User: Fold BTB domain-containing protein from Tolypocladium capitatum.
Amino acid sequence: MAPINGTRPHRQPADEYYRASLDKSLPRPRPPVVHKTTVLVGPRQVRFTVNRKLLSAVSSFFRERLQDASQSKPICLWLPGESSTMFALFVEWVHSPSSFRRFLDHAVQSAHETSHRASEDVHWAIVRLHLFASDLDLCKLQDLAMDALQDLYLEYDWDVPPSLIAYLYKQCEALTSVRIRRWVVAMAAFSLTVGPSQSPKVQPQDSATSESARLRALFESLPEFAADYIMHVRNMKAAGLDVRFKNPQLRISANKLRNDQRMFGFRECSFHSHRATVGEGPCPHATTD
Assistant:
């Protein structure tokens, strides 16, 4: 018996023709459908197009407004009281959360190289992003924005402007702004004891009069700010810390600090949403990234 030839026969030209014809006759698989949602932001209704599934996943605020909608029906939401500059950052985070901090750092640097006005715009966008995330209970995003704000002030040696303090204490809910209020109080205490920075201010109108005089004037017009300031100074003294040296811009990448570190900077999670529960353990965001 002749041995069986283990090699496959060469495909004939006719086979190739029929195979190509068959392939053409079969329907091509459809690309996955990505449903979008339109969000209008601010009084001018600036339009944003957002992935509906991702938007629903990040917050119950959006999920409750989108869940009853038919998949084929276009949905449009309007956020009249929000900033379009802030929401542009939020959309970037929704679509690309893992690379968002790098994106934010690049936006800050690009704005700084463009103009002082651009730096102001991105500064206020980050402030409002923190507040928006806090209002929606998006802990990781609000903490990320808080870190970015600290780093921005440290990088450019900014003093906290009185306009920011007034905004937080006059126009923002106490619960929503509790962490950023705590930070601006610490910044005000640091500025009043060491003197104002020589760097350009975040808001040009804030340099029209003495920075320290304007900060002190806020104690009379904003009783909550004055009470928070007094409590902060008392807490620093009780802990044996000197507000002249403890810089709120300086975030040390640890929660268990040596005595010399405690004197000059704040621990990693001092202004985070999990500050009360993390103790001296590692930052939850650092372990999950």
About this structure: The chain has one domain: 83-288.
